[in-house]
Amino acid sequence: MPVRPEGSSPWATRCTDSCPTHAELAEALCRIRRGARGDGRSQTEGHFHEEAAAAATAAVTALQSLRGHGRLASGQSVLINGASGGVGTFATQIARILGARVTGVCGAAKADHVRSLGAEMVYDYKTTRLSQIAERFDVVFDAASNSSFEECSQLLNPGGTYVVLLPSLALMTGMFLSLFTSKRCRFVTVQPTAADLAQLGAWFDEGKLKPILDTPIHSLSCRRR
Ligand SMILES: NC(=O)c1ccc[n+]([C@@H]2O[C@H](COP(=O)([O-])OP(=O)(O)OC[C@H]3O[C@@H](n4cnc5c(N)ncnc54)[C@H](OP(=O)(O)O)[C@@H]3O)[C@@H](O)[C@H]2O)c1
Fold this sequence. Notes:
- By secondary structure, this protein is an alpha/beta fold.
- It folds into two domains: 10-58 and 192-205, no CATH class; 74-187, Rossmann fold, CATH 3.40.50.720.
- Helices cover 38% and strands 15% of the residues.
- The chain has a six-stranded parallel β-sheet with strand order 3-2-1-4-5-6.
- Residues 1-17, 40-46 and 217-225 have low confidence and may be disordered.
- Bound molecules: NADP nicotinamide-adenine-dinucleotide phosphate.
């Protein structure tokens, strides 16, 4: 059964209500990109594979972290630590699509790139520690996963959410401490769903979301039926 109404994004047409695997997710994007160009065997086909590989896990992780766990909504603010990375570049774009204001943290060399994705402000992690940032945010998304709830709690507005991608002792401590405040501490284990796939597909098809590739990998290929 298709997961979306006819006429909307073609990205998810082949997915069912059952949860797609990461490989299926990547394959779906390959098919859409080939179909959109009408050239199933074009010279640029390799790029479809690269986009798909880059998009599959990272984009779903970013979406579930911000909209799902972070409950990020239009008009809110988010700090993204690791904004220039695989997950972070999608998170920056998705936060903007959701209508949030984005502050990024990354290396100085990629600051302009993160700004170009929609961040209003970018901090260099080599010169500014998270604890030195004066602003307050509704969501702190640590895509780099090298901070702790304790460290980032002061960056959160009351009721705000800290979201991290790697489990650690600090995460356990953070979850315990969050029981005594209005601020939440969340850990993400990405689980692709057909609904998220359809949403991301629509954004890709509308040109709102773009995979960012800094190193082409030409050996990737998609299974053909
Ligand atoms: N839980 C899950 O389901 C899930 C899903 C996907 C990924 N992950 C995990 O999420 C993490 C991020 O993945 P990714 O693909 O986005 O990694 P990545 O592409 O390597 O990006 C890492 C990011 O961290 C930044 N960074 C490096 N050192 C930093 C520091 N000291 N302070 C702040 N930022 C720093 C990098 O900035 P520069 O490049 O500008 O230096 C870059 O933006 C990985 O650990 C991965 O295993 C978890």
